Amino acid sequence: MRIETENVNKRFGGVVALEDVSLEFPSATVTAIIGPNGAGKTTLFNVLTGFLRPDSGSIHIIEETCMGVDSSRVDLAGLAPYEIARKGVGVLFQDVRVFDKLSALENVAVGVKDQAGEKPGISLISPGRVRRQEAQVLNRAGHLLEFVGLSASAHLMANQLSYGQQKLVAIARLLAGNARVLLLDEPTSGVHPSMIDKLLDLIQKLADEDGRAVIMIEHNLEVVNRIGEWVYLMANGRVEVFGQPNEVLHDRLLLGYFPTL
């Protein structure tokens, strides 16, 4: 599954937030979006996830067959956030959002879609079915915590975890909801240096081994150089430079936005 935008525009009054933004985020790839504050990166994420509607342009999510052939193409522009999430797009916010009073395991289990226990009628008519599915959901949540390296902390309350561990829980919860496109807003921000390698290894694994399209906003250019396969440099709502990290991070235009390089 991949996601594409074509000539997306967004204005706030007289302020141009996005101008003719055309991007492609392939599956099995980590794509980084960099740029100064006010470049339009967060607005782009909000448009991709449905929290903002573009003024014009299209946003498509494309399903691919195992042979890489497009099998379906759905326009996301105009859909509500929950509809886009159901299409397989998940977002990790910069300010990580977990349920403090639930365990790590319970936080991940919440992400599983269409649980029978969510429907009062089924709970009354078929409690056995609900209990069986709850066991299956918790089992799946346990496997996902193991996948992100947190199985030993499964029964700790979320507020007992470090900030980096909470981000891992939030990623596992996105996986529980079958997100195939992952939007990560500054995933390493606020994370203790001892956790950054673990987090980046997981992000790389999600793309390389799991085949997901991973899109990250990141200010740390060392991180971009390490795991980004493609990089978009945005400024003033436009895409200024696109290429591989070794090309973009040595572009003269980049020095205008990051003069300390």
Short recap of the structure:
Helices cover 36% and strands 26% of the residues. It is of the alpha/beta class and 261 residues long.
How does this structure look, described?
The protein has 261 residues and is of the alpha/beta class. The radius of gyration is 19 Å and the shape is globular. The protein has a 6-stranded mixed sheet, with helices on both faces. The chain has a domain at 2-97 and 177-193 and 206-257: P-loop containing nucleotide triphosphate hydrolases (Rossmann fold). Helix content is 36%, strand content 26%.
Give the DSSP E fraction (strand runs of 2 or more residues): 25-35%
Mean pLDDT equals 88
What gyration radius follows from the Cα positions, in whole Å?
A: 19 Å
Major sheet size, sense and barrel closure:
6 strands, mixed
Helix proportion of residues, in percent?
Answer: 25-40%
Instruction: Name the CATH homologous superfamily of the domain at 2-97 and 177-193 and 206-257.
Output: P-loop containing nucleotide triphosphate hydrolases
The arrangement of helices and strands along the chain is EEEHEEHEHHHHEHEHEEHH
**pLDDT below 50 for ≥5 consecutive residues: which ranges?**
none
Key traits:
6-stranded mixed beta sheet; single chain; alpha/beta; 36% helix; 261 residues; Rossmann fold; 4-stranded antiparallel beta sheet
Furnish the topology, listing elements before pairings.
Elements: E1 2-12, E2 15-25, E3 29-34, H1 41-48, E4 56-64, E5 70-75, H2 81-86, E6 89-92, H3 104-109, H4 120-125, H5 127-147, H6 163-176, E7 181-185, H7 193-208, E8 213-217, H8 221-227, E9 230-235, E10 238-243, H9 245-248, H10 252-257
Parallel strand pairs: 3-8, 3-9, 6-7, 7-8
Antiparallel strand pairs: 1-2, 1-4, 4-5, 9-10
Helix pairs in contact: 5-6
